[in-house]
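Kindly inspect the following:
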Amino acid sequence: MSKDKRRKIGDVAPEFHLFDQNHQKVNLMDLLGDNNYVLLYFISTEERSRCDRSGCPLKENLEKVMDLGVTPVVIDPDPVEEHKRFAQDHDIKFPILSDPTMETIKGYGVYEKVNVNGIEKEKVVSTVFLINPEGRIVAVWEPKVIEESIDDIIKVIRKLKGI
C-alpha cells in the first residue's frame, strides 16, 4: 500500500454500500446519522482468527468504542456467510461488512500487493479510520491488531466528544 493512496485526516470519507453479517445493506451516511461518529476498521483475516472460545479481542475492544457512543464497523473481503458465522459464534453486535470486490478497501487505500508463490495478490492492511458526523476522517491508525491502538483511539474519541 502506498501511503499516498490511503485516505488521510481531513479527507471526506468515501461512501460505501456493503452487506453486513445479517444480509442488510449498510452505507456510511446512514451510520453517521444524527451526530454520530463511526470507527471504520479494515481488518485482515488474521484479526478474526485470533478469536476463540476463551475470548475475542476484536469484540472486546470494539465494545469499548460502542460504550462511548461511537459505531464500530468492520470491513474485510470475506463473504457474508463467513461473517454471519463469526458474529453468531462471538455474539458480535456491530456490523461486519463484506467487500468481496475490495472496491471500498481500495477506495480507502488500505491494501497492498503481495507475492504468494509467484502470484501477485491484494491484501488488506489493517487500518482504523475515525469519521466525524460530517463525514470527514478525523483520525487514522494502522495497528497490526486492535489492542495496539485502542487506548489512543479511546483517548481521541473522548477528546473529540468532550467526555
